[in-house]
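for the writeup, i need someone to sanity check this before i put it in the appendix. the sequnce is what the collaborator sent (i think, or maybe the updated version? ugh). structure was predicted straight from it, no edits. if anything looks off just tell me and ill rerun, i have time this weekend
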Amino acid sequence: MLVFREFLIPAGLALALSQALALYRHSLDSFTPLQKQDFLSQRNCVPLQCSQDHPFFKMASPDNVLRLQKFLADMGICSRRTAETFIRNGDVSVNGKIAQIGDKINPDTDEVVYEGQRVRNRKQGQIVFALNKPKGFICSNDDPHNDRTVFDLIPKDYASLRLFCAGRLDKDSEGLVIITNDGELANQLMHPSNLVVKRYQVSLKQPYPKNKFNKLIKGVVYEGERMKIEKAALLGNQAHDASKELDVWMHHGKKREIRNLFMVLGYDVQRLKRYQIGKFSIKGMPKGAGVILQKPDIQKLFKNDETL
């Protein structure tokens, strides 16, 4: 087979060339010795042996090639969805060129740079925190306009890890926030297609009638986006089939969606608390406290609780 000098080429091209070379070698192997000699002499080629462990084949292996946004998530930079935003904004480069959505890379050979810093190909152990966020804290790693972030509540031993929120709560809301270094897990929790149910306790200024639940489920359009929920139930005092306290289910979550939905319908949200994701609840967990989730609790995040 032909031997190429080692040089850096895009992973996608390397994969295609590797497959072509494999087919070429297979074709030669099917020739008789006389046919092979005649074929190569006509093309001025010399058959040489090259192991599959050669760097070229290692670089081109399909097992080493992955989408850029998945690599950034795997390295704990952010979730895959956030990585796509960074790529669109031109914040990521690969081998000195601005990256594009759809780019694939080989972590072993391609140089990925985010905000001027090279992203090293290293694996950290999975860390997943469940935090009971108090009101007044923001779900951001860094915000010059806010002094208090949820990461201030994480034990200092984990300060060196690249952690981010798998779904956010606004500054005025409280309750369950998942903080992790696992981009794939974050993407699974946040993507609407996975139908991960988040449950909220909503406290209103005015009682909301049960006969208007259909408006919450059908939703409203606010600033060009539909705001809606999946289910609702009355809590607390329920005079005349209405209450100021509601249990609300959602499996998506646009920015301030619940607040904007009730606002458009003429109701003021006084308190908003996310108390459960899937079957994992923060019942009994003090404000500002958190726990590291083990595998059974992580699995609970993806299980549906049918009780309402």
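Residues 11-29 form the longest helix (19 residues). Residues 1-9, 45-61 have pLDDT under 50 and may be disordered.
thx in advance!!
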